[in-house]
Amino acid sequence: MTPVPPAAAPRPDPDHVAAHDTAWLLVQIRWVAIASQFAATVYAAQVLGIDLPRGQMATVSALLVAFNLLTALSLRPKGPPVPDWVIAAQLGFDTLAGTMLLALSGGALNPFTLLLLVPVMLAVSLCAPARALPIYLLANACVWGLTLLPAPPGRGTGAIFLAFILASTILSWFTLRLRANLAARAAAIEALHRERAEADQLVGLGLLASGMAHELGTPLTTLAVTLDDWAELGLPDEPGRSAALSAMIAEVKRCREIVSRTLRAAGRERFEAAAEVRAEPEFRRLLALWSMTRDRSPVPLAVTPGPQARFLTEPMFEAAALNLLDNAEAAAPGTLAATLSVTAEDVVFTLTDRGPGFPAAVLDHPGAPFVSGSPEAGRGLGLFLTRNALARLGGRMELSNGDRGAVIRITLPRLDRDGDLA
């Protein structure tokens, strides 16, 4: 009986993690605030000699400590995410506790009154606007209430209240606009990632379709020539007809194999990860595969002595390499040659032919779609698809004309840059 592999551990929900981290951040901020309040109270009483109701203030601080301990204990790594209204309620408690401490230590004239802006900013930053609005209103109401407490003669508190309203409104508006801009930017980035993924899929399908079209050309040509001869000259005699039918059936089977192999390659492109391979064996395999599947003469490969470098490949790279060979063979049949070399950073594969070379339009816009030397409409996608397939692997493609024909240079980053992998 085949053992059932264990199920993969589920990935954590990013929103859940973010909500949990936000709740922990509030707990940490609250500990800092409690410690700061204690230090400020001791400094005012011991150094400045200000008479404060330390017993009542200690009671409020003790309530804050107990509240923060309960909050910390309620946060479980795998527990449910903390909703907005809970965050807002905690910030409301912080606002009321801070207001009580300010009321016991000077009211609106206490310079620490501006700290009531902190819960407002946290609410606007972390909660939905509808949840943050009550905290904004509560903080302003608390400051207004502090201005109603008795103040020393000649020291009005109305200006402090107006300044707090102005500061809280401007900062809240700015934070909301900033959140909206960040959300729009995140949505735009996500859309770009989605479009890039769709473009990668189209590139892969285009390469597979291009390779399949080249492979199908030979068997379909054989079938077309045989059928044209029959249509023009009539059916041959029995021995010749049987041999021709056997050859045609073989060519149809070959077409089916080509289509099946293409579909399997499309499945690998969706489900298989990229693989690390040695450069020389991989390029020799690609050249042999092209020669076998296209019924062409082998392409000689000259290897410059050097380390057995490695690079990253994927199914679409195979399709891109075969597509380049198809295009080069179509431009200059039977003249292809390849070289492989290794630099300190890259693996370099160069393909040359003895044909007419690239036209100026292709060299001016290398890899641009629908730019080719062919007069036929719709041509010129091969180099474009190949360039994009290489870009997925961090590679690049360079086109030029040499002394005897076209030159295609493919550069792929090495994975063994720190040493020789013999």
Distance between the termini: 41 Å
What's the order of the H and E elements? HHHHHHHEHEEHEEHHEE
In the sheet with the most strands, the strands line up as 2-4-5-7-6
User: Count the helices. How many?
Assistant: 11
Number of strands: 7
State the shape: elongated
- Compute the CA-based radius of gyration: 37 Å
Structural category: alpha+beta
Can you describe this structure?
With 422 residues, this protein is an alpha+beta fold. The chain has 3 domains: 14-155, no CATH class; 198-266; 275-413, Heat Shock Protein 90 (2-Layer Sandwich), CATH 3.30.565.10. It contains 11 helices and 7 strands. It has a 5-stranded mixed sheet with strand order 2-4-5-7-6, covered by helices on one side. The protein has a two-stranded antiparallel ribbon with strand order 1-3. A hairpin with a 4-residue loop joins strand 6 (396-401) and strand 7 (406-413). Helix 2 (54-74) packs antiparallel against helix 3 (84-103) and helix 3 (84-103) packs antiparallel against helix 4. The longest helix is centred in the middle third of the chain and has 76 residues, at 158-233. The relative contact order is 0.06. Residues 1-12 have low confidence and may be disordered.
Notable features of this structure?
3 domains; Heat Shock Protein 90; 422 residues; two-stranded antiparallel sheet; 9% strand; single chain; disordered N terminus; alpha+beta
Would you kindly provide a brief summary of this structure?
It contains 11 helices and 7 strands. The strands form 2 sheets. A 5-stranded mixed beta sheet has the order 2-4-5-7-6, with helices on one face.
